[in-house]
Amino acid sequence: MNLQDVPRLNHLNASNFFLLCGPCAIEGEDMALRIAEKVVAITNKLEIPYVFKGSFKKANRSRVDSFTGIGDEKALKILKKVSDTFGIPTVTDIHEISDAYLAAQYVDVLQIPAFLVRQTDLLVAAAETGKVVNLKKGQFMSPEAMKHAVQKIKDSGNEKAWITDRGTMFGYQDMIVDFRGIPTMRQYAPTILDVTHSLQQPNQSSGVTGGRPDMIETIARAGVVNNVDGLFIETHFDPANAKSDGANMLHLDLLEKLLTNLVTIRKTVNGLG
């Protein structure tokens, strides 16, 4: 697909990676607008095409008392306000067929969670909305297997598919990124590296997922060197008190320096020919 197909995606002529970035979950309007404003300023300065990310609900949680959202339509309306306020596209993940039709009324990109990427009915429903469909690679799947997920979108009459690698299970409580998969998946669709989820440490005995945010720049640099089309980074101004995935999110204050370094690396890689 052509990134020109994404409404309000700016800086497409800058030869940069594009960025999906925002909080794990929409916790409220003020926090979403605060994060979006900061990231928009940074990405405009660095000429990075930017899509605001925020989950309107969290269906895959370790415990029944984990935060799942503030209400579906309330959160989706906040995503729409972010889009309208800053003139940027938005992405959110969906979990059920009905979510596809609901979320498509508010956002530009529908994201399929990694653990649901083999669910044919869900993929078809997302494709039939006509929105861009971002397919997260299952932690249990090979890069080559993502060809079939992309084909399901195309067979449903939608050519607008992305793939996002979010790591592969390594034992019970860790993830690894196999960078050999990036050129493989780029044959099928634009490929994004989910930096922060790749650093999750799931299945902790506490029931709260851990993470290694200290390794964010390491993984992100390797992705840029290996020609990923986009990066996915979750960020928050107070990760320690975020309601979801705080353990592996990047502090918002660290984002500009990280992206500045990554843009410098991408310019160098572009010059290699």
In words, what does this structure look like?
With 273 residues, the chain is of the alpha/beta class. The chain has one domain (3-270): TIM Barrel (Alpha-Beta Barrel). 33% of the residues lie in helices and 18% in strands. It has helices at residues 29-46, 72-86, 97-103, 120-128, 146-155, 181-186, 216-225, 255-270; strands at 18-22, 50-53, 90-93, 109-112, 132-136, 161-165, 168-169, 175-176, 191-194, 200-201, 210-211, 230-236, 250-251. An 8-stranded parallel barrel has the order 1-2-3-4-5-6-9-12, surrounded by 5 helices. Helix 1 runs parallel beside helix 2, helix 4 crosses helix 5 and helix 7 (216-225) runs parallel beside helix 8 (255-270).
Short characterization:
It is built from 8 helices and 13 strands. It is of the alpha/beta class and about 270 residues long. Strand 1, helix 1 (about 30-45) and strand 2 (about 50-55) form a beta-alpha-beta unit.
In the sheet with the most strands, the strands line up as: 1-2-3-4-5-6-9-12
CATH architecture verdict: Alpha-Beta Barrel
Pick out the low-confidence regions. Answer: none
Which bin fits the share of residues in helices? Answer: 25-40%
Provide the CATH top-level class: Alpha Beta
Q: Which strand-content bin applies to the residues?
A: 15-25%
Oligomeric nature of the chains: single chain
Question: Helical region count?
Answer: 8
Distance between the termini: 22 Å
CATH fold call: TIM Barrel
Main sheet overview: 8 strands, parallel, barrel
Listing every helix as H and every strand as E from the N terminus to the C terminus, the arrangement reads EHEHEHEHEHEEEHEEEHEEH
Overall mean confidence score, pLDDT:
92
Count of β-strands: 13
Class by SSE composition: alpha/beta
Rg is 17 Å
| Assigned CATH superfamily | Aldolase class I
